[in-house]
Design brief:
- The chain is an alpha+beta fold.
- The chain contains 10 helices and 4 strands, in the order αααααααβααβββα.
């Protein structure tokens, strides 16, 4: 009987985790990135005052780490710990309070206070997001994240490493941008191709100043530059993996043609 109960608890947790990912994407993803390596977060906050990533809110891996270490008894009974976190979140979602936040005060200085989510989550959605947070495992995402540099750092790195610059123009409201990040830019083959030949930059056209004399007419748009910042290739739209890899190959070919012309 105990094994049967354990099985159903495990099954229930798995179902909630799947639903919770959907709730996260619908209600949280516009502000909270799913995963960014801690080394990159430390550089962003400790060295660059959030100018590297320009985050609007703590990442999910930051939140989960602080929740599990600061709320309740992490070394105690797991079910009790889960309930303690659920109780904390129920209150915090309804009445956010910076004084009660689990995040470090130095990190909170970069963010506005979270708006209340009172009435925005059904009971089922709340239970799902709690399970998603508690069962969240950063290791499941750490190999699937494309690193973005701020444009200034990308320019220096591109010259030093003789790589092209790829700028991903996006917007918070753009569902095709999110689809590209979720389904293509998180793919291991795409990440490997980008990291080998390119330095990647992401610019939110609604919130960030565009450093170039180029204005995208739609999002997503991908702009490819030479290491010297010469515009070589721009491609608007959302793409599947195979087509995007072909776009990267075409960008490299245009750069090679530019080098040949310069050598003539």
């Amino acid at each position: 009987m105990k094994n049967v109960i354990s099985f159903f608890l495990l099954l229930s947790s798995w179902i909630y985790a799947v639903e919770g990912k959907h709730v996260y994407e619908q209600k949280c993803a516009s502000c909270h990135a799913l995963y960014i390596p801690m080394s990159t977060l430390e550089k962003n906050f400790m060295e660059m005052d959030n100018r590297l990533l320009q985050l609007k809110a703590p990442t999910m891996n930051q939140i989960v780490y602080r929740l599990k270490s600061r709320i309740g008894d992490p070394s105690g009974d797991e079910d009790m710990h889960r309930m303690e976190i659920e109780s904390f979140l129920a209150e915090y979602f309804n009445t956010p309070d910076r004084e009660k936040s689990v995040c470090l005060p130095d990190i909170l200085t970069y963010f506005e206070t979270m708006p209340s989510m009172k009435g925005q989550l059904s009971e089922e959605e709340f239970e799902a997001i709690v399970s998603f947070l508690y069962d969240y495992d950063p290791k499941a995402y750490q190999e699937k994240v494309l690193h973005y540099d701020a444009f200034e750092e990308a320019s220096i790195k591109a010259l030093a490493e003789d790589k092209m610059i790829m700028i991903f123009y996006t917007a918070a409201h753009c569902r095709y941008c999110k689809k590209m990040e979720r389904e293509v830019l998180s793919d291991s083959d795409v990440i490997a191709a980008l990291e080998k030949e390119f330095v990647s930059v992401k610019i939110d056209v609604e919130r960030e100043k565009n450093p170039l004399d180029f204005t995208p007419t739609m999002t997503p748009t991908f702009l490819f530059l030479s290491p010297e910042q010469k515009q070589l290739y721009r491609v608007p739209g959302s793409w599947v993996k195979e087509d995007f890899l072909e776009i990267l190959r075409e960008a490299k070919e245009k750069y090679s043609q530019t080098l040949k012309k310069g050598a003539e």
